[in-house]
């Protein structure tokens, strides 16, 4: 173990009721850049979930008694600890997830921003309203209350930031959290939880149980003390969790996959569109739910766009993610590599042509680890799997369109509805597209990342609920109505 893992101690353990909990049964954490084993974490069980829930229930009762300004101050202390450990957190993200160190530093800035927004935007919020009562001498008040214990289940692509995205509002609203991170990337979540502990958050308020989705995750979702589930992950997991939560009828918030269309109209600024199309596809090795998954270009600009996109994408420096000049690291896992390679091969079988890349980059450095070259596909039809299903890797199919109507039809022809991009210099075209696109988030001549005060949520099968901003905060509260009679009615 190197200093990278100082925050986690010699042998990473789960965090349950403020204690570091180990287990004889462990699961390795692999380095995406080499395939080698970094360390191992405990393989959690339903019993660990029970213990974490008991600790969370006890902690939540006390935490909910604290005022909002007090909770905000406690979260502000977390921000200080994040800043103190920022570089270490970034290096943990790089080690287990494989994004570049530059991207990982951005992710840590994101953690800070999520806590900052949660604390500062809600510290002095109005927590309810007084409504005109129907009877005299009565006050009718509705007010926000915490839900209780939130089960938070997170993916591997932003293994630290998505943890903070859930912890910030959940804690601020007065809940405790039991978190289950992705099997691929448990260390970042454990490190964020440790930072919360170092900042003085009460024991049991933030617990982390590592392990399998269908074991630990399912035990959390079905636990009788769980008050709400928030998942960021795949559509498949979302459906399983929704079904598992149905018998107890607890609220479920789902942030799921995406298949963002990137529309380039004939009058678009092509310099801007090419640059941002590449950035929005290859960031984090293409592993972002908002990534540009399919680019549609007006036929009159198609050839020029493809030529320039290929030139721009070929220049991306694929290198060791801890190298300061790396622009793209490896994919997270061998299984993910295989999935993407399989999709590219099937697209080629169906007639797609490789304009760039297509698999492992050439060179000795890329022999071990999950390296995948920036890839551009042409001769793609809109009904192909590569255009319809989420790739979540550095592969961009580029499809021509003939007119506005066809562009919108192609863009909306999917079961996903998270993010869409529109590039046009014409306000009327851009705004009409904002009206017509069936997506929860539309960027015009812009790309992400999304901002903490916005609202990130998917339409259709991309989600249920949503995160960030005031609408996201509302997921973590419930309302109580008080009828306060002071007239002495007999
Ligand atoms: P995944 O669905 O495989 O796993 C996500 C989490 O769910 C993991 O912790 C996993 O163990 C757990 N899980 C899986 N099945 C479960 C079950 N039946 N019960 C309880 N828990 C279960 O997703 P992933 O591969 O880690 O992440 C990639 C996916 O996440 C992509 O589809 C991506 O688009 C999506 N994502 C969405 C957003 C968003 O904001 N909409 C953000 C990031 C990632």
From TrEMBL:
The keyword RNA-binding does not apply. Pfam families: Aldedh (PF00171). InterPro entries: Ald_DH/histidinol_DH, Ald_DH_C, Ald_DH_CS_CYS, Ald_DH_CS_GLU, Ald_DH_N, Aldehyde_DH_dom. SUPFAM superfamilies: ALDH-like (SSF53720). Residues 1-35 are annotated as: Disordered. Gene3D superfamilies: Aldehyde Dehydrogenase, Chain A, domain 1, Aldehyde Dehydrogenase, Chain A, domain 2. The active site is at residue 255. Residues 25-481 form the Aldehyde dehydrogenase domain. The keyword Amino-acid biosynthesis does not apply. Keywords: Oxidoreductase. Belongs to the aldehyde dehydrogenase family. PANTHER family: ALDEHYDE DEHYDROGENASE-RELATED. This is Aldehyde dehydrogenase family protein. It comes from Pseudonocardia charpentierae.
